[in-house]
Prior knowledge:
This protein is of the alpha/beta class. It has one domain: Rossmann fold. It is about 40% helix and about 15% strand. It contains twelve helices and 14 strands. It is globular and about 55 Å long.
Amino acid sequence: MAHSIALAQPSSQSWSFSQDLSDVLLSTEDIWPSLRSARIFITGGTGFIGRWLLESLRLANDTLDLDLRATILTRNPDAFADAAAHLTDYEPFEFVSGDVSSFSSPSGAYSHVIHAATEASAHLNRTNPRQMFSTIVDGTRRVLDFAVEKHVSRFLHLSSGAVYGRQPQEVTHVGEEWLGGPGCTDARNTYAEGKRAAEMFCAIYGKQFGLDISVARIFALLGPHLALDIHFAAGNFILDAIAGRPALVEGNGLACRSYLYAGDLTAWLLRMLVQAKPGVTYNVGSEESISIGELAERTSKLLGAGKFEIRGGPDAGWNPGRYVPDTTRIRRDLGVSATVGLDEAIRRTALWNGWTP
C-alpha cells in the first residue's frame, strides 16, 4: 500500500510533541522500507534518547504498516509503564526485565540492535566510577555477544563525544579523525574512557565476527523528556527560567557547548541504523557553538526576565573547555541536517515542561 505523508514545520507558537514525531517520520520516509518486518532489540529504550526512538518507531509502524517488532531491555518495566503506558501496552513492543551486563537472551530471531544503554550520570561517575565503567564496557560486550548469537544484520552503538577528551580551544569543531582522548589516570574521565573501550569492543567484534556496526558519537541535546534537574546546564537554565529564578552559572561560564534538538537526533540515528556503512563512526550533534554564560543569558531572555548570574567558581566537571562537533561526515554521507535551531529547541523543551509564554 502506498502512503503519503504531508507535514508542515511548526514554530513554538503551534508546536506539539506529536508534530515533532511526525517530522521525524517525514524526514526519514525513505528508510522505512528497509525496516519492514524488522525485529529490533533495544537497550536503553526507556531513557531520554530511547524514548524518542520508541515513539518514532511506534508512529512509523502504525502509519506505514511495517510489521515491525521490538524487544526493549530495561531494569524496571513497571516504572516505565507508569510513565508511558501507551508504549508498554503497545503489542509490537515487548519489554523484558534485565541488566545490560548479564541479561538472558530472549528467544527468537533479531535483525537489528540499538545499544543505547549507558550510565550518563555525573553523580555515579563521581561516587561509583567502577560501576560506571563496568556498566558501559561489560554491557556493550554482552550486547555484542547477543548480536553475534542472533546473527543480526545491523548494530547501532550510541557512544559519546566525550571520547575525544578535552577539545583544544583552537579546534572550534572536533571531527571524527581527532586522535585526542581523555586522561586515563583521572577517574573523572571514567565515563569517557568507558565509551572509548566500548567503541574498541565494537571494532573488535566487527573485525572478528563480521558484525555490521556503526557508532554514533552523541554531543549535548535538548528536547522533551530531557531531565532538567540533573547535571546538564541547558536543562538547569530552563528549569530556573520556568521557576522565575535567575539562570545560575556556578563556574566562569566560558565553556562552550552546542545543542542538537532531539527530533533531529532521532532522525539521524534512524538513518544511521539503516544506511551507515559498516565500521563508520559519526559525530551526532549541533555545530552552533555557545558559551555556558551566553546560554544562561539567552535562555533567561527567551523564557523569563533575562536575569542570570555567573558566580565564577571552579569548574568541577570533566570538560571545562569546548564540546562542539564537526558534523561534515554525517551530513555528507547521510544527507541529514539540523532543522531546529537553538532558540526553538530551548522554547520547545520549556513548553514540554510547563512553561507558558
